[in-house]
Amino acid sequence: MANVGEAPKRNEIPPALLASYQVMASRRIGYDTLMWQTPMLGLTAQAFLFSSALNPSSSRTARFIALSLALITSIISMQLMSKHRHHESADCLMLERLERIYKLEPLHVRPEVRDTVLQLRRPWYIRLSSFRVWMAGLALFAVAAAAIMIITIAAPGLLK
Question: Got the DSSP string for 35-79?
């Protein structure tokens, strides 16, 4: 066993810590999966809500309710996606730290670090953060819902 203050030797991982590492890795995968399921479910709901809101036979009240729900769906999808991202990132950092301390193969490094180590060239569209792109997309749906709500109130004839 390593002395206090010095890093343990490779493969000298206490069984309880190894079990925790495995649980944390599994949990991280779960958060990552949930993070990307969130916008898909939100977009499915929004497709239905926008279809209802933009249907020429919808009443102003029905349109306003559908758009309110679309706006709320955008906001809560963004919040939930951010929360899953936060938890996934925290688990990833803890796993990286354990891998560094116990001199394990670095399996949980960020893609940018991995690509640098492997000397992979990343085109600009891959360098973009998918999380930020999706957050911007969800924000655009929120803006669209708000804009159509304003049109519904101020100039409902435009929606016929």
Answer: HHHHHHHHHHHHHHHHHHHT-TTS-HHHHHHHHHHHHHHHHHHHH
Q: pLDDT digit of tens for each residue in the chain (160 aa)? A: 445 455 555 567 788 888 999 999 999 999 999 999 999 999 999 999 999 999 999 999 999 999 999 999 999 999 999 999 999 999 999 999 999 888 888 888 888 888 888 899 989 999 999 999 999 999 999 999 999 999 999 998 888 7
Its pTM surpasses 0.85: no
Question: Residue 64 is part of which domain span?
Answer: 17-153
Q: In total, how many domains does the chain have?
A: 1
